[in-house]
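Before relying on records like the one below, remember that each one covers exactly one chain. Contacts with other chains, cofactors or solvent are not represented anywhere in the record.
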Amino acid sequence: MAPAMRPNSGGEGPFPPVDGTSGPELGPRKLIRSSLADLRRDHGLPRNPSSRKSVPPEQTNAEAFYYLKQMQSRTQIVVRLLDGEELRGWIEWYDKDVIKLNRENAPNLVVPKHAIKYLYKEEEERQLRRRKPRA
């Protein structure tokens, strides 16, 4: 270890006197450094390679939230199937694999989700029709 200069108690400062008389005492040098664990914690670095970013969850519950909201308000929904057919009604209940669509003046249907291309609110279709004549 390289010796470091200690300030003397006489108040002369860290530099030796110019006249060559006794200077400050020399002692072991002490390094002040934070540990690697502190740096990782402070800077958000992972502690070990296995605790890196976790995989996003498979289920976000966004679909469930959407269905529940539409069910509670009995929103009229248009369901477009993979073959191009459109079904109109409101969602009474849903499951992991199917939704039950209630329809007025027609039988209620249980539609498998794998047969659905997309679905949207009937209200959005009306709004789109109103905008087209203006353009």
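The radius of gyration is 37 Å.
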